[in-house]
Design goal:
Distance between the termini: 25 Å
Shape: globular
Number of strands: 9
Structural class: alpha/beta
């Protein structure tokens, strides 16, 4: 979990259900992941890494899936359903839309910037190709 400037991103690696079950027994883990801004989906967004209780607790605004062109077991629709939504900017035309789940397979390079702006206010912005 990375927390900075009032923003939170949860990185999960290749965890699957058995490890999430164990981690969710810990109150400090549950508190650390609660209500994050962004979730980097476990196990490349595959069904084998989707854990409903974990994702519900993270309650992300946006889920990011790093996947390839062969993704026969994608859980992207399940992540979209559990994400609150965040404005995502398209690099190519500057258009901004509310997104729930972005993937490298569909959206290309995904850049997330967050911190403090010149006025000292916090910001978070996701940009896709």
């Amino acid at each position: 979990v990375i927390s900075f400037a009032g923003k939170k991103i949860v990185f999960t690696g290749d965890n699957e259900s058995c490890s999430f079950n164990k981690l969710l027994e810990r109150n400090d883990f549950r508190e650390a992941i609660r209500n994050a801004d962004i979730l980097l989906a476990p196990h490349h967004g595959r069904e084998s890494g989707f854990h409903s209780e974990f994702v519900s607790l993270v309650n992300p605004k946006l889920t990011v899936i790093s996947d390839g062109r062969f993704c026969d077991s994608s859980a992207s629709s399940r992540y979209s359903e559990k994400s609150r939504g965040m404005i995502v900017k398209k690099r190519s035309n500057g258009k901004r839309e509310k997104g729930y789940c972005v993937t490298t397979r569909k959206d290309g390079c995904i850049l997330v910037e967050f911190g403090y702006n010149e006025e000292g206010k916090t910001f978070m912005e996701a940009t896709i190709n």
